[in-house]
Amino acid sequence: MRDVIAYLNSVLKHGDKVIVGVSGGPDSVFLLDMLVKSDIDNNNIIVGHVNHNVREESIKEEEFVRDICFNYGVVFESIMLPKEYSGNFEKWARDRRYEFFEQLIDKYSAEYLMTAHHGDDLMETILMKIVRGSSVKGYSGILKKEIRNNYTIIRPLLDITKDDISDYLDKNGIKYVIDRSNYSLDYTRNRFRHNILKYLKNEDKNVHLKFRKFSDKIISVSNFFDRYVENIIDEVIVDKKIIIDKFKGYERVVQEEIVYKFLFNYYENDICLINDKHINMIIDMINNDRPNMSINLPNFKIVKEYNYLYISNLECSDYKEEILNDRVLWNDRVIELVDNSHLSNNNVIYLNSDDIKLPLKVRTKIDGDRIRIKNMQQYKKVKDIFINEKISRSERDRWPIVVDSDNEIVWIPGLKKSYLDSQKSEKYDIIVEYH
């Protein structure tokens, strides 16, 4: 752990103030302990704790962190998030966390924000990006140092593993809390963590350092590539439109990066919603001989008109989306939560709230939508389901799609149920009918 403290001492100057996010879990408690043992004055360490207000343990965890701060002699600040939110919970909560941290940065005139991401987090993120698809820079995973407008984010633990952290805390009798959801395989990151990382570590106990080296190399290549693309992008993107004949003059790898940068101007922190599938759809549309086309992406519509490609809000198209709090009137039918049901066909679905991210939402289809149908291992295109069920084109554009807040399709009412549907003999606490 001396290396972590040495790194902190190399970064921090006398008088620097640091905001550190502490949840009470082992990683953030370890980071706080390292900061306290560094040369920085404890009075210049400000702990920011976010009570996400979704688990019964949240209040006790907040008190736990408050007590730790008292014992260490550092400043404690906290915020409780409201229960009501919209969209993807993980993204919404992340945005609220960083808003809170930036408020603390302004309040204390802090130079740094530190988070407890470690080597395992870096490996998980890189693997998930490879599977999902990303930009060149995205494949680097997590940056150790990230300069923002008026502060710098530092992630000092990327060179050590979760096991290193746990061993240190246990040997030194330092207490921490455990979030049991970290062990649930319902979450993609947890599946990578528990099913894949252990095999990589068995091959090489220092594999995390190989991932760090990979990350650094990708960052170097990305910075070089960025400079090249920045030199040409103003002739390809004019007045927020891609000039198609200019765009076609570049190699595919350059085209992909241009599209990423084009989309980033609209998505910004939501760029994680975009993957290789979306990029390929846009480039295929550009290369299509049809002069006028459009496709729907998450939140936006991409429009091709002759020699131009531009983005419009989905609100300007036929796209609709509503949160399913009680009931949603959809065209001439109703989708509603019910206490019980006698149905067992495709007009009802039984869900376990532990398996999904609430709230449920009802929306129209998005190009590229896929659903993992019940009793099937592979995902199937929603478009193919509509074709097989002989749903007309006009009906497809208006057909309801029920998704959770991670945009996982759980049900196509009246047509197909996903693998998330429970049998009546199984555990469920949500019943939704379509009538």
Please give a structural write-up.
The chain is an alpha+beta fold and 435 residues long. The chain folds into 3 domains: 2-212, 3-Layer(aba) Sandwich (Rossmann fold); 239-316, Uridine Diphospho-n-acetylenolpyruvylglucosamine Reductase, domain 3; 321-434, Phenylalanyl-tRNA Synthetase, Chain B, domain 3, CATH 3.50.40.10. Helix content is 39%, strand content 20%. It has helices at 2-11, 26-37, 58-72, 89-108, 119-132, 162-171, 188-195, 197-203, 207-236, 244-247, 252-267, 276-287, 382-388, 393-398, and strands at residues 18-21, 45-51, 75-80, 112-114, 145-147, 152-154, 237-238, 241-243, 292-297, 300-305, 308-313, 321-323, 327-330, 333-338, 348-351, 361-363, 370-372, 379-381, 401-403, 409-412, 416-417, 430-434. A hairpin with a 3-residue loop joins strand 20 and strand 21 (416-417). The longest helix has 30 residues, at 207-236.
Number of DSSP E strands? 22
Work out the strand percent. 15-25%
Q: Main sheet?
A: 6 strands, mixed
Estimate percent helicity: 25-40%
Number of DSSP helical runs = 14
At the first level of CATH, the class of the largest domain is Alpha Beta
